[in-house]
Design goal:
heterodimer, A: alpha+beta, Jelly Rolls, four-stranded antiparallel beta sheet, 8 helices, B: mainly alpha, SP0561-like
Chain lengths: 233, 70
């Protein structure tokens, strides 16, 4: 196992609490896959065969509605898992996973996962905990979609991205992945027009700065104030 | 001399992870920093300035509260 692979897996919540030998044994049974930007790891509706953990880069998980509208479910970064549905037979991938930039993942087929979960019950508990956390996040997003006005939803989507892919720079907190206004609309359940209008307002107020596929949060507090409906200063 | 554990250049998250009870100081000053998504990026100095507080006074208050906590 390469040293950087080992580092990512050791820090990953999927493998927390596993002894070093157990982690090495689990990693040795995984298959390394390298994807170029825009390459698909799996497609929505295909039979789910493998659970994957991102080692480097990022995956974008999307779903397409019956009307052809694309929704971004979430981004998966280093150490995070996706396609836990592959643990059980007869399931389809609920979303499509596309590499945002050059990305490598380690993946385990179901039969191997089944053996590993029996050998290392901690692994199964970790996956269960992560799925529970994900359900909590999805409930939050459902509530936002059902009850919150769109500015709050867009602000929250940007904050979530900053939290997982943010990088402190001289200009503010830069979201370190290529991100178009259309992506932001697909993440927050609104239209490109609305996102463009909001981003223009926020740029004028000095809250964000955006260029081609790039967003910098110039005033983190300003964006939190919108997301949380804090009183204006 | 003992090195102080709370610095203006530390992030809000770092500080609150170390001294969870200091959240009370933030609340008292009307600062919504505890649990904030950006707490891992903003330093104590930036958070103080954002809310219009003088950073050194704020730091002194945090130090006082942390010695009570310890």
């Amino acid at each position: 196992m390469a040293a950087d692979t080992h580092d990512v897996l050791e820090r990953s919540p999927v493998f927390q609490g596993l002894a070093a030998e157990a982690l090495a044994a689990v990693a040795a049974k995984g298959k390394l896959r390298r994807l170029q930007r825009r390459e698909l790891l799996f497609s929505q509706g295909d039979a789910a065969e493998e659970l994957a953990v991102v080692l480097e880069g990022r995956l974008k998980l999307t779903q397409v509605t019956a009307e052809g509208q694309e929704v971004i479910v979430r981004y998966v970064g280093p150490g995070e898992m996706c396609a836990a549905v592959a643990l059980f037979p007869g399931q389809d991938y609920p979303a499509t996973a596309e590499a945002v930039g050059d990305t490598s993942v380690i993946a385990w087929p179901r039969r191997t996962l089944d053996e590993l979960a029996r050998e290392h019950p901690q692994l199964a508990l970790n996956v269960l905990r992560l799925l529970t956390e994900r359900m909590g996040e999805l409930s939050d997003r459902l509530r936002e979609l059902a009850t919150e006005r769109v500015a709050r939803r867009v602000a929250r989507a940007l904050l979530r991205l900053a939290r997982t892919a943010g990088r402190r720079t001289d200009r503010g907190v830069e979201i370190d992945l290529p991100l178009t206004r259309e992506d932001i609309a697909r993440l927050s359940g609104t239209t490109l027009f609305t996102v463009s209008r909001l981003m223009a307002d926020w740029e004028e107020a000095g809250i964000v700065e955006s260029g081609r596929e790039r967003v910098v949060i110039r005033s983190p507090h300003g964006l939190v104030a919108i997301a949380e409906d804090l009183p204006a200063e | 001399m003992i090195e102080p554990l709370i610095h203006l250049e530390h992030t809000v998250e770092q500080t609150l992870d170390q001294f969870p009870l200091l959240a009370a100081v933030f609340v008292r000053r009307g600062m919504a920093c505890a649990g904030c998504a950006m707490a891992c990026f903003d330093t104590l100095a930036e958070a103080a300035r954002t809310y219009g507080h003088e950073p050194d006074t704020f730091l002194a208050e945090l130090h006082a509260a942390s010695s009570n906590e310890g």
